[in-house]
Amino acid sequence: MKAKFLPAVLFLSFISLAATAQLKPVIKAGIINSTWNGDAQQTLGSVLDKTNGILDSRSRTGFYIGGAVDLPLGEIISIEPGLTYTQRGYGLRGNLTINQLKIDALNARATAQMSYIDFSVLIKVKPAGGLTLFAGPQVSCLAKNNLRADVAVPGFSLLNTNLDITNQFNWFDVGVTGGVGYEFANGFGINAAFERGFNRIDKNQNFRAFNQGIKAGITYKF
């Protein structure tokens, strides 16, 4: 369990090493639309135990929030280590069987609601004005993964419950993120980014499924 605190340890280490630099604290928040790339249906299907018929895949829209420090390396280049809480996940809709709940339902929905702690180190370049290009590695630790099951008929909700499936998924992920943004003179900024994980999310490594998502958000640099 101690390994799950790795992102926080790395983040604090960067701050300590850069204590004599001209640090500029940054806060950031936004929305993320995430999915699983690869064998997504098979991965979630293994948690559901059985699926029947045609299934529709669904991405999950969540949010992220966190902070960072901007370390200038010159007029146009800086390094930004940051720590964020990020929601990710993936869902299926169709005829599902959830043995843990003794449910065999038509037109049900199951969504893996994942919560991660991310540590990223971004290289930022400002080619002109407030325009910013950024990219870098990202280490993510899974804090929680709930399977939300929804079964309903028109006008009635028959079931709305959550199951803890954290221990069925890989707690560690390494990936990359990158995008474009614009920083205004008053400290506020906007950005859009793409992210991709390289570690299989399935704990048993049976399926080739990986985290993937697009993000849009705002920042404020002090």
CATH hierarchy: architecture: Beta Barrel
Calculate the mean pLDDT score and round it: 86
Question: Strand portion, in percent?
Answer: over 45%
Secondary structure: helix percent: under 10%
Low-confidence stretches: none
Per CATH, the class reads: Mainly Beta
Count every beta strand, where a strand is a DSSP E run of 2 or more residues.
9
Describe the secondary-structure layout.
Elements: H1 6-17, E1 24-38, H2 40-48, E2 49-72, E3 77-98, E4 103-128, E5 131-153, E6 156-164, E7 172-183, E8 188-197, E9 209-221
Describe this structure as you would to a colleague.
With 222 residues, the chain is mainly beta. It has one domain (2-221): Beta Barrel (Porin). It has two helices and nine strands, in the order H-E-H-E-E-E-E-E-E-E-E. Strands 1-2-3-4-5-7-8-9 form an eight-stranded antiparallel beta barrel. The longest helix has 12 residues, at 6-17. The radius of gyration is 20 Å and the shape is elongated. The protein starts with 5 loop residues before the first helix and ends with a strand. The mean pLDDT is 86.
Quick summary:
This protein has helices at 6-17, 40-48; strands spanning 24-38, 49-72, 77-98, 103-128, 131-153, 156-164, 172-183, 188-197, 209-221. By secondary structure, it is mainly beta. Strand 7 and strand 8 (188-197) form a beta hairpin.
Defining key terms:
222 residues, Porin, eight-stranded antiparallel β-barrel, 9% helix, mainly beta
